[in-house]
Amino acid sequence: MELDANSDEHGRSVTELVVDCLADATGRDPLELPPLWEVIDPEGLNSVFEPRRSGDERAGTVQFRYCGHEVTVETQSSVIVSAKRVSTGLR
Asked: Given 3-state DSSP classes, what are the helix, strand and coil percentages for the chain, each rounded to the nearest 5?
């Protein structure tokens, strides 16, 4: 599952994109997901991907686990959020 902020006409924050991506990946309502702040600082995550004062885009990647998925947030001329199911190796 992947969401691209450039295709988002509502101007949602990075953290909102993460929650929406995980809701889609898990088939759950976003309000049913555990709070994102339990795994990462939402304000910090948003600030990492805000444009610089000059207006230039920041470059970078942040990865973390949330709801049994490996979440990757990156910039490549837009903010991209992707989520892949994590195998725990447990049976």
From this structure: 30, 25, 45
Non-local CB neighbours of 24 within 8 Å, separated by 6+ positions: 1, 3
Q: Which is nearest to 3 in space by CA: 72, 57, 85?
A: 72
The answer to whether the pTM exceeds 0.85 is no
Query: Cα separation of 77 and 8, whole Å?
Result: 14
pLDDT tens string, the chain, 91 residues long: the values are: 665 555 444 577 888 888 988 888 889 999 999 999 999 999 999 888 888 889 887 888 899 988 888 888 888 656 677 778 877 654 4
Q: How far apart are CA 23 and CA 25, in angstroms?
A: 6
Contact in structure between 71 and 21 (CB atoms under 8 Å): yes
